[in-house]
Design goal:
The protein is an all-alpha fold. It has ten helices and no strands. Helix 2 (33-67) packs antiparallel against helix 7 (218-242), helix 5 (137-182) runs antiparallel to helix 7 and helix 8 (245-270) packs antiparallel against helix 9 (274-313). The N and C termini lie far apart (83 Å).
């Protein structure tokens, strides 16, 4: 290779290590490559995760509207949205706010994201020198106090009120139904009315179709709501952390690309290895790029993305309790005739 080509390669390698101006504020030096890249990718993964889970809650809202289930909408969905907004949406706000502020002009250092969130919950919104985010510390303390209060109150609300309201509706409707059966004429008509009443009460009590058998059992409904509440609260935390797999996949892809480039191309281009060694290195680099980065890595990313859609996203609104699919059949249509 000519000295001109070697100089171009060295300049390209040095430019490769720099960052785009959109990520580095003007007038500041670029931080270390790996820690800065990890931080940006990690926060972007959290932003994507919270956005998708919030969209799942919006789809659940549409389900409640279509089904006419106002009890679940008011006493379960709204507390879920409050819990999501009070902690996770506020976390996204902190991330975006820290990106948009020039901290060199502030009198205080940028606080750690984890420190702000932990102190907000444990200290009930208290703000000190290590957790001050906004210029008005009193405003931040009031905001975090209200957010913490809403987050803590949303848990018992989504746990207690729905079973109690369903139980009261059952007690109010049950005497009317049995009076109608008691004054019925024929046995067959009374039996049909009894079955219809049981189905109506069960459907009204079950909400999304999580059937628990005929009738209404308060203890069973309360246990079901307890499991659902624990699953949502803990699942929201674990699902948000699960979106960090996007950061891990990006990190693995970037590191593999850098290793393949440095070991198979750059070293052979800089050193006097000859044309044969360079041909072998380029061939190995192409094979590794196609086999590992394009085939294996893309398949891995697809599987992880499919898992995020199926588990973290769809568990917010998909219940798998609808009508079973029945393919069209001419013979079945003839039998019905």
């Amino acid at each position: 290779l000519s000295p001109v080509c070697l100089g171009s390669l060295r300049r390209a390698a040095s430019i490769n290590a720099e960052y785009m101006g959109v990520l580095i504020p003007p007038g500041t030096t670029a931080p270390s490559k790996l820690p800065f890249g990890n931080s940006v990718k990690m926060k972007c993964s959290v932003l994507f995760g919270v956005t998708q889970m919030t969209f799942g809650l919006i789809l659940e809202f549409s389900n409640h509207i279509v089904e006419g289930d106002m009890v679940t909408l008011i006493w379960e969905w709204i507390p879920q949205l409050v819990f999501m907004a009070a902690f996770f949406m506020y976390m996204c706000l902190i991330i975006i706010y820290k990106w948009t502020v020039n901290w060199e002009e502030k009198d205080y250092a940028p606080p750690s994201l984890i420190t702000v969130l932990v102190n907000m919950v444990l200290g009930f919104g208290k703000v000190d020198d290590q957790t001050q985010l906004f210029d008005d510390a009193d405003m931040q303390e009031s905001l975090q106090m209200w957010l913490t209060t809403g987050m803590l109150l949303s848990i018992p609300i989504m746990l207690i009120f729905k079973p109690i309201i369903l139980y009261c509706k059952h007690k109010r409707n049950a005497p009317e139904g049995y009076d109608e059966v008691r004054h019925g004429g024929q046995d067959q008509g009374a039996e049909g009315t009894t079955t219809e009443i049981h189905q109506n009460i069960s459907a009204e009590a079950d909400g999304h179709g999580h059937g628990h058998g005929e009738g209404f059992d308060f203890s069973e409904e309360f246990i079901h709501q307890l499991i659902h509440t624990i699953e949502y609260v803990l699942g929201t935390v674990s699902n948000t952390a699960s979106y960090l797999r996007l950061w891990a996949l990006s990190l693995a892809h970037a590191e593999l690309s850098e290793v393949f480039y440095d070991k198979m191309l750059l070293e052979l281009m800089v050193e006097e290895g000859g044309g044969v060694a360079l041909f072998i290195g380029v061939s190995a680099f192409i094979a590794a790029t196609v086999g590992v980065l394009i085939v294996m890595d893309q398949l891995e990313c697809f599987l992880h993305a499919l898992r995020l859609h199926w588990v973290e996203f769809q568990n917010k609104f998909y219940y798998a309790d609808g009508d079973s699919f029945e393919p069209f059949s001419y013979s079945e249509q003839v039998k019905k005739l």
